[in-house]
Amino acid sequence: VQLQASGGGLVQPGGSLRLSCAASGSISSINAMGWYRQAPGKQRELVATISSGGSTNYADSVKGRFTISRDNAKKTLFLQMNSLKPEDTAVYYCNADIRILFRTRDYWGQGTQVTVSS
Q1: How do 112-116 and 9-11 pair as beta strands?
Q2: Block mean pLDDT (10 aa), the chain, length 118
């Protein structure tokens, strides 16, 4: 099983980016999925999560600016980031709780860099 994140880049303050994370492999089902981020010198923190049924949860720092969504048929997770701020600069990681036959475990993507700077 692999999680492949993409969509990061350099954007000016106030700009937008859309991150994607595609899951591949012999997957039976995907439960909760989420985005986390880690800025230099800081611990990894939760950005947003989404359940298999579409219920969402956001960090206070991104509420109203970021939107998490998923396409279950394509096994893909998205993060629409609007009104970006310099403090959003970090490596963004996707995470998924994936079931393969009778075993469920967490998987992480490789990370994609988001830099917000003028």
Answers
A1: parallel
A2: 96 98 94 97 97 96 98 97 98 96 94 97
pLDDT of residue 46: 98
pLDDT tens, position by position, 18-38 = 999 999 999 999 999 999 999
Distances 15 to 33, 40, 78 between C-alpha atoms, Å: 25, 21, 17
CA–CA gap between residue 7 and residue 16 (Å, rounded): 11
SS3 of the chain: the string is CEEEEECCEEECCCCCEEEEEEEECCCCEEEEEEEEEECCCCCCEEEEEECCCCCEEECCCCCCCEEEEEECCCCEEEEEECCCCHHHCEEEEEEEEEEECCEEEEEECCCEEEEECC
